[in-house]
TrEMBL record:
RNA polymerase sigma-70 region domain residues: 42-106
One GO BP annotation of this record: DNA-templated transcription initiation
Domain RNA polymerase sigma factor 70 region 4 type stretches: 134-186
Descriptive protein name: RNA polymerase
Classification via Gene3D superfamilies: 1.10.1740.10, Winged helix-like DNA-binding domain superfamily/Winged helix DNA-binding domain (1.10.10.10)
Alphabetical keyword list: DNA-binding, Sigma factor, Transcription, Transcription regulation
GO terms of molecular function: DNA binding; sigma factor activity
Length: 194
């Protein structure tokens, strides 16, 4: 069976309601003070926060967006801030974190961009290069065997004189002599062709 509430209960409930209202008013006034402190911090340090973001991003318009976004985020989460005296530190850290995120998005975007096509030679340039290549091959075939071997190993295979001598089983002096005479003969043959 339920007992009736004592006569003093309404007064206790009323006092509790007043205490709750006072607490809500106190919390609201502290929140207003924090908003004012945040707004003053933002106004006083906007330039330094903007410079920080600009240095991190190297893009003034994005830096402005980052600073404004930092203000919005700190404003939205100011009820969770432990130390309101560190409002500027919270703002700076938020600017740095947002700048990092923006840079990561940029890098990801650059990685996902299609690779540019190499500059293609015109049909005329391709035909001319093919003709030159054919003429060079014909001229190389007309050289003496040792001259051709030395020139191919030295200039097409990019071997050193010592490596060429080792591959061909001749001395370094012979490599120099065959190479020198072979280049003179190759120039003469190419001029004949041209």
């Amino acid at each position: 069976m339920l007992e009736a509430a004592p006569a003093s209960a309404p007064s206790l409930l009323g006092a509790g309601a007043r205490v709750g209202a006072d607490a809500r008013f106190d919390a609201a006034s502290r929140l207003d003070a924090a908003v004012d402190q945040l707004t003053e911090t933002y106004r006083a340090h906007y330039s330094s926060l903007l410079r920080l973001a600009a240095l991190l991003l190297d893009d003034p318009s994005s830096a402005e967006d980052i600073v404004q976004e930092a203000f919005i985020r700190v404003h939205a989460s100011q009820h969770r801030l432990r130390n309101r005296d560190k409002m500027l530190a919270y703002m700076r850290q938020t600017v740095v974190n947002l700048a990092r995120s923006a840079l990561k998005r940029r890098l990801l975007g650059l990685r996902l961009l299609p690779k540019p096509m190499p500059d293609a030679a015109s049909a005329e340039e391709g035909a001319y290069a093919a003709l030159e290549r054919d003429a060079l091959v014909k001229a190389l075939r007309r050289l003496q065997r040792r001259q051709r071997e030395v020139i191919v190993l030295r200039y097409f295979a990019d071997l050193s004189e010592a490596e060429t001598a080792r591959v061909l089983g001749i001395s370094i002096g012979s490599v120099k002599a065959y190479g020198s005479r072979g280049l003179v003969a190759l120039r003469a043959l190419m001029e004949e062709e041209g």
